[in-house]
Design a protein that fits this description.
Length: 240
């Protein structure tokens, strides 16, 4: 029976590349998405990957959807907490809505999803949990106090979870991508993005596939001794 992998925000951007990579490694992949039905359905048809729509920031929706997945597939072996949004503004221009929304989607979702899968992983004595953080959670970024706060929080969350779960053969690790060639990064004003790329030692954006490769390794049986780690994929933008 193949291992079952659940990828949040798994139909676009970095999540899309992760879903496809895990599918090509013969995992049964379920790609969660929040809103874009058309993109999700096209993705599903093209890649033969199951998609499921719900809002990961909503605890009840997570609870119902995970119960349904467990009923259909009997287990979830791998969780990739990838879903994330930006609402960039310097703090002096940041309203409560921009703060709250990013905390809900990027951080509260991780509590929702992980707390709802962890007990069956503990019972099965196996689990792989990967949290997609960001270079900006490590170094901070102008205009991202909300986003950086959530991405830094994932590191403490993951390390705590690693301590709690190691005895059950469950690993929890964090990946911190830098600026990756996705819609999220393409939305940055052109001149600002150009100046950011100039500060990247490798002088280019990363590719989603480069992140997916690392996730694919972390969730494999070979990576059982990598636990509580924070791994950077950022072209040298931040060395930590
Ligand atoms: N450092 C210091 N000062 C800066 C600065 C920086 N990095 N960026 C802008 N400023 C200054 C400007 O020079 C300007 O100064 P003056 O008023 O003296 O002219 C002032 O701040 C206002 O700048 P903006 O015109 O840019 O302000 P804005 O309100 O229009 O835009 C912003 C603010 C939306 C945050 C914009 O600066 C921006 O988009 N920054 C990039 C944020 C970013 O990197 N987002 C990443 C999104 S992708 C992602 O998050 C994925 C991932 O994990 C990496």
């Amino acid at each position: 029976m193949s291992k079952v992998a659940l990828v949040t925000g798994g139909t676009r951007g970095i999540g899309e590349a992760i879903s496809k990579k895990l599918h090509s490694s013969n995992f049964t992949v379920i790609a969660n998405y929040a809103s874009n039905d058309q993109a999700a359905n096209e993705f599903s048809k093209k890649n033969n990957i199951e998609v499921k729509k719900w809002d990961v920031s909503n605890y009840e929706e997570c609870k119902n959807s995970i119960a349904k997945i467990l009923k259909d597939h009997s287990k979830i072996d791998i969780l990739v907490n990838n879903a994330g949004i930006t609402r960039d503004a310097p703090l002096h221009k940041m309203d409560l809505e921009k703060w709250q929304k990013v905390i809900d989607v990027n951080l509260n979702s991780v509590f929702n999803m992980t707390s709802l899968v962890i007990n069956q992983m503990r019972e099965n004595q196996f689990g792989r949990i990967v949290h997609i953080s960001s270079v900006n959670g490590q170094k901070g970024q102008f205009g991202q106090a909300n986003y950086a706060a959530t991405k830094a929080a994932l590191i403490g969350f993951s390390k705590s979870l690693a301590l709690e779960s190691a005895s059950k053969s469950i690993t929890s690790n964090v990946l911190c991508p830098g600026y990756i060639n996705t819609e999220m990064v393409a939305a940055i004003r052109e001149d600002i993005l150009k100046s950011i790329v100039e500060t990247i030692p490798n002088k280019r954006l990363g590719e989603a596939d480069e992140v997916a490769e690392m996730v694919n390794y972390l969730v494999s049986d070979k990576a059982s001794y990598i636990n509580g780690a924070t791994l950077s994929i950022n072209g040298g933008l931040w060395m930590d």
